[in-house]
Amino acid sequence: MKLLDKYSRLNITATILTFLIGSCTFYLLLNYILIRELDERLQAEQQEIQAYVNAHNALPDIIQTKDQFTLFEPVSSKSKTAYISVKLKQNKDQEDYREIKFSLLADKKTYLVTVGAPLEETEALLKVIIAVTIAMIGIILLIGFLINRVVIRRLWKPFYFTIERVKSYHLSDQENLKLEMTDIDEFSLLNQTISEMVERIQQDYGSLKNFTGQAAHEMQTPLAVIRTKLDTLMQNEALLEKNAQHIIDIEKSVHRLSRLHHSLLLLTKVENKQFILDETINLDSVIRDKCEEFGEMVSAMNLTVTLDVQPLTMRFHHQLAEIIISNLLNNAIRYNRSGGAIELSLQETILTISNTSVKGKLDSTKLFKRFYRDTDSSEGTGLGLSIVKQICDIAGYTLTYQFMDDRHHFKINFNQS
Q1: Rounded mean pLDDT, 138-161
Q2: Residue 274 binned pLDDT confidence (cut-offs 50, 70, 90)
Q3: Helices (H), 57-119
Q4: Contact 368, 410 (CB under 8 A)
Q5: What DSSP line would sit under 267-280, residue for residue?
Q6: What is the pLDDT of residue 173?
Q7: 185 Cβ contact partners less than 8 Å away, ≥ 6 residues apart
Q8: Angle, helix 220-235 to helix 244-271, in steps of 10 degrees
Q9: How far apart, in whole angstroms, are the C-alpha atoms of residue 180 and residue 220?
Q10: What's the confidence (pLDDT) of residue 91?
Q11: What is the model's pTM?
């Protein structure tokens, strides 16, 4: 859930609960005030009647009105206290009213006086006030919702712009991360921090690339010396007879080190974009040529290779195309089982290479990382698939891996993303 949506839900929920509690409290308080005002009016009427009787020793003339009525009822004994009560309507023609009853002595007679006032106006006023309050609450909620959806979304726009820029940023592009200027302190601090972090990462990345390239170049001379000395040792038959296995192991290690050196140089060139992707190539021809080159390896493992290749002419780099096909095909052969199968399919702009395997699914989170190798395999440099992924990323191609039907499937979509 997005932060804005979560905040809006929490804000609206808290606002509604606050208004509900406030409305109930306001209703009870307002009802109490109106009833108290009505009771005070009834008590004031009682005091006026008592003052008139005390002055004239007679009952006053009462004019009945819609808002108030007064009744005098002769009784045998005088009540000591006055009390206020509520009378509920007995039928539809009657109304609920509030009354005060008290007794007084006038002209040597005792009377029970009832002064009442209907509750209809009080209830009507209460309903109007509550309706207006509810309408105001609704307007406030609507305004709050619009503020959350429109104003706050605009305020968060620099944040989302920063996120999109960071998501689309690639360190290998060697470009500065351009972030939008904002007058919001928090977002400005975020952009400044990210920019400084990216700048430090670029420096470290550049240093690492330079080290890799320099190390790969520096390896050339020692490797050439080792190969020369090794060839000299292999020409010595006496020495070769006594140390044949050691010399073979050394030769394998040197060969592996040479492949590693070549791969590191290639990665450096790819990352530095030293290949211009403007050559016209026939990818189907490259695939057929590479299958012939790997023919001996295929025969040695008794593999069955199935080709379903349609002609495809594209703008790319011939050497990089050969590297992609070679690495994927070499991977399909090396990690196959004896008597297994390999299928190569080129349909429209999608290349698929699949192979049988005695092992299960590979770890897709590490598969394209540098120097990642299967734990049971001592061969290979662990850079083949990493190089393929790097080339595809730079060219804008999509490389994916799936494991289905006990087969590894590597798919490249040559439509640039």
Answers
A1: 80
A2: low
A3: none
A4: no
A5: HHHHHTT-S---EE
A6: 66
A7: none
A8: 160
A9: 46
A10: 47
A11: 0.47
